[in-house]
Write a structure and sequence with these properties.
β6 and β7 form a beta hairpin. The protein starts with 5 loop residues before the first strand and ends with a strand. The radius of gyration is 16 Å and the shape is globular. α1 packs antiparallel against α2. The strands form three sheets. The protein has an eight-stranded mixed beta sheet. Strands 2-1-13-15-14 form a five-stranded mixed beta sheet, covered by helices on one side. A two-stranded antiparallel ribbon has the order 3-12. The protein is α/β, with parallel strands linked by helices. About 35% of the residues are buried. It has one domain: 2,3-Dihydroxybiphenyl 1,2-Dioxygenase, domain 1 (Roll), CATH 3.10.180.10.
Length: about 200
């Protein structure tokens, strides 16, 4: 297991969700949706990040997401690491739009460089060991953060302490019930220590 082929979001209204994601981000088959009425409350324990090259692209993606119905959780602003903001899709999924650049170098080309799934872990060390035992390689890690090296994967994967991830997202860390997320990759289904489900693509 060394690749995430796509992400499946479980939503109440698949038609509305497909319309939103096409209008907001245009990610094609990287993000799929399927119908579910699974109960969930509060923070679902994960975020999806779109990494781009410059602030104008961040702003453009936030604008298109809000125009399509997203709510702004954190307005885009400069920080020590770059520039970014956070929105929540109508289906409840939290999206971080980020760049390491603090200045534009050209017009907004609306190009997404990376899609990264960040999973909120109760015990980052235990979750890291679980994934390493399943064949993943740690690219970098410090404190409560782990980034896996997956060069051939269209979707990157990282682990973050759940409470820290919620803070970055601008939401309360409390939440229960379904994650309403399926990670598509690998040859067999499994569930990780934090309840995130994987299924073959």
């Amino acid at each position: 297991m060394n690749s995430i082929d796509c992400i499946t979001l479980e939503v109440a209204d698949t038609t509305a969700a497909e319309r939103f994601y096409e209008a907001a981000f245009g990610l094609g088959d990287l993000v799929r949706v399927r119908a579910s009425d699974a109960a969930t409350t509060g923070f679902r324990g994960f975020t999806l990040s779109l990494v781009v090259s410059q602030p104008s692209t961040v702003n453009g993606l936030i604008d298109s997401a809000v125009a399509a119905g997203a709510a702004t959780l954190k307005s885009a602003e400069k920080s020590l690491w770059g520039y970014g903001g956070v929105v929540q899709a109508p289906d409840g999924t939290i999206w971080q739009l980020v760049t390491s650049a603090k200045k534009d170098t050209g017009p907004d080309a609306r190009t997404i460089d990376e899609v990264v799934l960040l999973l909120g872990a109760g015990d980052v060390g235990a979750s890291k060991r679980f994934y390493v035992d399943r064949g993943l390689t740690v690219g970098k890690g410090f404190g409560n953060y782990v980034d896996f090296s997956m060069p051939s994967s269209p979707v990157g994967l990282g682990l973050y302490k759940r409470r820290a991830l919620a803070k970055v997202a601008g939401v309360d860390a409390e939440g229960s019930g379904s994650h309403r997320l399926v990670i598509n990759g690998g040859a067999e289904p499994f569930t990780d220590p934090d309840g995130f489900a994987w299924e073959p693509a």
